[in-house]
Amino acid sequence: MAKEIDVTTCSEVMLFIYIEQLGYMLWWQIHESADGRVPMDFEWEKAAEAKLQAAGNQTTRFGVVEATTLQKNMCGDEVMAASKEYCAWYDWWNRWYKGLSEDDSLAIQKRVGTGDSLADVHPDGNWRTEEPDHANTRANHRRPD
Questions:
Q1: Nearest Cα to 115, choosing from 1, 5, 25?
Q2: Do the domain assignments include residue 124?
């Protein structure tokens, strides 16, 4: 599973990275087990989904009013889904994260691996109204030694 963090107190960028990493791991597990390449692990999947839900709900600390919403699936059953506002928050951070230079991405990943809080890392801009600004990202975090 993704490196455990306290989602109730972590920085916004750390919360995004945790959601991104855990979501990828969950997708990979489901994809690979569906093809029989790895054994199915329903307990792990259930635990990962609960952790993603808890992490997603913490986006309210950063201005997302409602992280989830009930939607009807193809069978007409109500299921929990990401809200449009949560998706806007996630997409903004994802554009920033995917747009980092290789050096900046490696520096952030190194800090994540050492448990650094990343509280000083935040692109200029606002997820509600603006595109993330990569020009100032380098100035917004320390370089590893």
A1: 5
A2: no
